Amino acid sequence: MTRSSSSPVDEGTPRNYGLGPRAAAVLVFGSSAAVLVVEIVALRLLAPYLGLTLETSTMVIGIALTAIALGSWLGGRIADQVDPRRLIGPSLGVSGAVVALTPAVLRTTAEWAPAMLFLIASLTILVPGALLSAVTPIVTKLRLTSLAETGTVVGRLSGVGTVGAIVGTVLTGFVLVSRLPVSGILIGLGALLMVGSALVEWRRRGWSSTPALTLVVVAGGLATMVAPGGCDTETRYHCARVVTDPDRGSGRTLVLDGVRHSYVDIDDPTFLEFTYVRAIASVVDAAFPEGEPLAAHHLGGGGLTFPRYLAATRPGTRSLVSEIDSGVVHIDRDQLGLGSEAGIGVRVEDGRLGLRRLDAGSRDLVVGDAFGGVSVPWHLTTVEAMTDIRRVLNEDGLYVANLIDHGALAFARAEVATLRETFEHVALVGEPTDIGLDPTATPEGGNLVVLASDRPVDLRATQEALDARQTGWKIATGDDLTSWIGDAQLLTDDYAPVDQLLQPYSPRSSQ
């Protein structure tokens, strides 16, 4: 019996939906690249709130891989049940809207509902990742015109998708992040995906869908502009704002990702607002004769509060600062008055690499202030890093560093133990409850200041300086410090589980 021409096509025979090979390659390449762009930028976006830790990286990579697996599976399954041509436009459009809104949504959540950050972050990676990953099996379905070409089509599109992922990774890591703020990358990518959705739908449905699609694209763009969570300035690493002190007209607070990072008095650099900065000043003033100029190196810049203090109190001091974020340096110059102080030089560089550029015995003082409450550059904590710091210090040189930790203070204990392995004399300054001088109280954590040198530390002079600045902090050294350190492990380049040791807390200020 002859089958009627109006009968359904045999389900085992692939249909030709008319999608050209170039269009298919562009769709697969672009969607695969977009998934990796979202993954890498999400790491940068979340680091200020969750820390640039092994756990954060593992979480983002795990969610991205879950999205790819889920999208590939569901995309193929749905494409077998629904006309695949109806799926591509919505997949691109919805993922584009989510990607474009991600910076505002995550930053708003981090500031106003931090308990929800993990869930919201997971969704902002999972939803667009799954939708974009579904494009490859959908396009594969459209391109399968003959069972004899199945291997060729699947293999070619799989290869194109892999190349797209590689290009997305390299482009983001080496080009986009170095030239654009993370929100700009995501908003731009989201806009491109929404435009791609509009083009796909226009090609499928013609002009009848253009008004609605145009409205969606415009609405999405406006939403990204008016959504909360914006910044005065967005740097490569931070969402930054400069806030004027209402009680002190010349006072400025540098706020990075919602946390008070630095306080600068433009007219009076000797005014030190934060307690830990006053503690560092006390340690340095007790270690060196009053007014003596120093050769100093600073690991981490921020608002350059302490380099300015040295320039004002020790004329002739030469301070060299390693600050990894060029955007913060621009803020220092444009909004915080950097430029009038003599002897302050800033290099945009990683602190560990900056140390290698210094000559042996060339510094009287090294100040470490690159550690944040949720993000610690572990490579600046190890025995090898401390050995390099010791190398650049002269025989009477001093290393003083700000540490931030909470809970059991496991990271701070390990770092102090590491310094003891490197320097002959080490002391710890902080609240008595945090440094073991009041064993009846439970440590709260926060800022601690550690000092290390190969020459003896003048404990009495240091304590007097701390008292004069009304810090309320005390000094732990000798047996007290040994007891406080306990059995903490040394940190090395080969073994530095800083991410696991650190107990972060999300205060509204770092003082």
From TrEMBL:
Keywords: Membrane, Polyamine biosynthesis, Transmembrane, Transmembrane helix
TM helices/strands, residue ranges: 24-46, 58-75, 87-106, 112-132, 153-176, 182-200, 212-230
InterPro entries, per database record: MFS_trans_sf (IPR036259), SAM-dependent_MTases_sf (IPR029063)
NCBIfam families linked to this entry: MFS_SpdSyn
SUPFAM superfamilies assigned: MFS general substrate transporter, S-adenosyl-L-methionine-dependent methyltransferases
Coiled coil: none
GO biological process: polyamine biosynthetic process
Name used for this protein in its record: Spermidine synthase
